Amino acid sequence: MGSLDDDFSFVAASVERAARVQRAACRAVLSDQTQRGQSLALHLDLAYDAIERRVVDRRTVYASAPDDTVRRDAIVELQRLLWQVRKLQSNLSWLEAAQDPPLDLGTRYFVEDVARALVAKDAEVTVVATDFTSYATSSDPWEPLISNWGSGLPAGAAPVVVVFIPRREAHSGLLHPLIVHELAHAADSQHGIVDEVWRIAQARKRFAARFSKAVTAFSSAHSVSLQDANDHITQALRSWIAESFCDSVATHHLGPTYLYSFLSEVAPGGLDDPGPNHPPPRRRIRRMLIDLDRLGWTDVIRNADADLESWVRDLAGEAIPYTGHVEFLVWAIDELAVVVRKATERIVAGRIFCPNLDELAEVSELLSARIPPAQRHNRAPVARESIIVAAWHAALIAAGGGPTALATAPDAAELAELLPSALELGALVATWSNP
User: Fold this and answer.
1) What residue spans define the domains of the chain?
2) What's the whole-model pTM score?
């Protein structure tokens, strides 16, 4: 009995120490309100608090355990918790990124402005350069732990959004529009967009009939229960809806910029393989073009690079057949496209980016003269979205145009300096114009 007591006490103390040592970094940030990442530090501090409460709870359970089997199980549980707590040390690098962001100042201003518009006025965004293969995001990552084991997030706590960018692209300003797609995931988390689309879909008789048929076919083909088949297809479709929504938000907010960034980053890895969480890239590109045409970008894209525009439309127009439940998922995403678009228009209301040809011409002229285009001839601030579009077009031309230019355009050396400067100055001009 004594040996088990010692084992339990030893492991419990180890968990508490791991949490205590790691939360010191959170407390250091919270003690200095001038430091960035206040909400991030608060959330993480509450997570460590919840862990310590869990240990206290496990002590109570252990003390009342009826036999040694239950006591040993309690020790094993804490051993597993110890490793989970130690893994949380990677989150301390997020605090470091909040203090020393990998993004240039102009892009950071732009990302924070978009987050306030899409997610919440007090949303806090931290961008972290990681070894992830592509862009990703996490919203309020510790909320489940804090709610389950702790006292929950305080009322009015600012949403925390952590965006991960590939370390290799930390300074690729032309690809950072992909961050807007990630912020749309945070908007979904905050506003329940996928839940809304899912409710509308289930109320449609045609959708319900096709869904039921797909579930039955999946159950038979994979020898699983109808419930398991239902769960599998539901999870996949909800993930696909989320990706479609985020693509739509980024397209409505950025115009062709998002298309170029997506083509450069995603398309080379394969166009037709559906993922468990992502529709095939070719289908996503097709939907982007439909949205861009609706928003009036057709001629702008063609005039900027006719060879590239022709290639992209040929690529998107090729019909690739699918079978099984993937066929249903592809159909469902097309079926729900208008629902997704309407949800997008509500979220992006007032910030939908349509072409302003005069503004784009002025921005392009300034870029060609190597002048950061932050202000128009009439002294009005330039939309930062126009700056990024014009920079992409300039980079494509400098890279020789056509599909191959997509691969090398993000490396344009002069634009790598001009674009951040223009975005930074654009933010200042916008602030001066709208104090």
Assistant:
1) 2-92, 101-172, 192-347, 357-433
2) 0.94
